[in-house]
Amino acid sequence: MVTSPASPALSCPSLDLPRINPDLDGRPAPQIVAWAASQFGPGLVLSTSFGIQAAVMLHLATQVVPDIPVIWVDTGYLPPETYRFAEELTQRLQLNLHVYQSPISPARMEALHGQMWLSNRIEDLNTYDQIRKV
């Protein structure tokens, strides 16, 4: 599923982290994921960049919560290997993948704004992030 960014209202349970952290400390990762699922219910999501180590967390989370929504912000500038890796993991792990992309294509953005990341100016990088990732 590919969508454009949206701003749905989300709620988060109030968590007493100083009390919770010692209880979860040292527990196996699957137990911590199960705890998070019990706290957040359908609000629990996992984000990924499909970087080289993404498979570990995706595998872990889907073993505990098979249909967990996985959010991927696709900038349109990732290496071809990343897209192939994303497809392979999506199929292999049967990911409930939600892909978010900017409503403006990379080519159009570059035509209007240039290759902002090349300037190394923080303002340009912030503009790039706003256009591609928010």
Report the sheet with the most strands, covering strand number, pairing sense and barrel closure. 4 strands, parallel
Q: In total, how many domains does the architecture comprise?
A: 2
State mean pLDDT (0 to 100 scale).
Answer: 91
Find the CATH superfamily of the largest domain. Answer: HUPs
Low-confidence regions: none
Listing every helix as H and every strand as E from the N terminus to the C terminus, the arrangement reads: EHHEHEHEHH
Structure summary, number of beta strands: 4
Give the distance, in angstroms, between the N- and C-terminal Cα atoms: 17 Å
Structural class label: alpha/beta
Radius of gyration: 18 Å
| Residue share in β-strands | 5-15%
> Strand order across the biggest sheet?
1-4-3-2
Q: Helicity range of the residues?
A: 40-55%
What is the CATH topology classification name of the largest domain? Answer: Rossmann fold
Shape: globular
Can you count the helices?
6
CATH classification class of the largest domain = Alpha Beta
What CATH architecture of the largest domain do you see?
Answer: 3-Layer(aba) Sandwich
